[in-house]
Amino acid sequence: LRFRLIFRLTVQPDLHGDAFHAAWEPYPELWTWVSFGPFATTSDLLAWHESYVRSQRDRTLFAVFDTSTGSETLAAVIGLMNVSVDHLCAELAFVFTLPPFQRTHVTTHGTGLLLKWCFDELKLRRVQWQTNEMNERSWRAAEKLGFKKEGVKRWDRVLPPGKAGGHPARDGDPKKS
To answer: What percentage of the chain's residues is helix, strand, coil (to nearest 5)?
Structure first.
């Protein structure tokens, strides 16, 4: 399979929103480990993208397309967040590989290209991968790319009720989900 990393999602999501929503819709399990999604409509997806990604200067998403068939088929979306120019670091985030492309080269090669760009072009010193400790697939992908486990951050991300790895609300907790 051939694929390429395309940076369009950060530039014109309205042109690709329907394709992204259609590609993700059959796989609600992709949203298990994150606090957002799945999205019922393309409008919901675009509203999330506008408020959570585009409105923040330290976040961006990249699309990985399979081009082996002569057309572009969305294979994965990989993002960066907590990008700090001052500290020369970033976090890989939102590594969503669609099931037909899981256990192929897509995640490792797409992420590898993004890491190369971060280190060679952006001159970052550190790129970290953070995942829920129960998300074994994410841990394996990170380890395959050479990431080392440095620790466990507890209560770092709030997941809504029903999401895997979420914690029940505590008495008096101001954020219930």
So the answer is: 35, 20, 45
Burial of 36 (0-12, 13-18, 19+ CB in 10 A): middle
Give bridge partners of residue 91 from the DSSP assignment. Answer: 81, 128
In this structure, which amino acid lies at residue 21? H
CA 9 vs. chain centroid, Å, equals 12
As a whole number of angstroms, the distance between CA 83 and CA 23 comes to: 27
Report the length, in residues, of the chain: 177
Query: What sign does the dihedral 101-44-52-50 (CA atoms) show?
Result: positive
Measured CA to CA, the distance from residue 39 to residue 88 in angstroms comes to 33
Which three-class secondary structure state does DSSP give residue 150?
coil
The tokens describing 100, both together, are: 């037909």
Q: What is the pLDDT of residues 122-142, one digit of tens each?
A: 999 999 999 888 889 899 999
pLDDT in tens, 138-175: 999 999 999 999 988 776 666 777 776 666 667 777 76
Q: What is the Cα 17 distance to its own chain's centre?
A: 16
Residue 133 CB neighbours (<10 A): 12
Residue with tokens 């057309």: 71
Q: Are 106 and 75 in contact (CB under 8 A)?
A: yes
